[in-house]
Amino acid sequence: MNSIFILETSQFIVALIIIALVLLQEGDGLSGVFGGTEAFHVRRGLERFVFTATIVSFVVFVGLSIANLVF
Length: 71
Prior knowledge:
It is a multi-pass membrane protein. InterPro entries: SecG (IPR004692). The protein is mainly α and 71 residues long. It contains 2 helices and no strands. It has one domain (3-70). The protein is 66% helix and 0% strand. Helix 1 (3-24) runs antiparallel to helix 2 (46-70).
């Protein structure tokens, strides 16, 4: 196994994880555009974990993408 295969496979797996995490997040969609109320919302519990995991996964994905460009 060469490093390019490992990088591309890792990038693909992280992309699938990001898709799953984004779909798990609760959101009001476009209600703010059409006059929905904007209330301050505190993330707690599982919602906070999913939000943080999405950000971490995105950072890992960007790192893998840059590594794929370099190697």
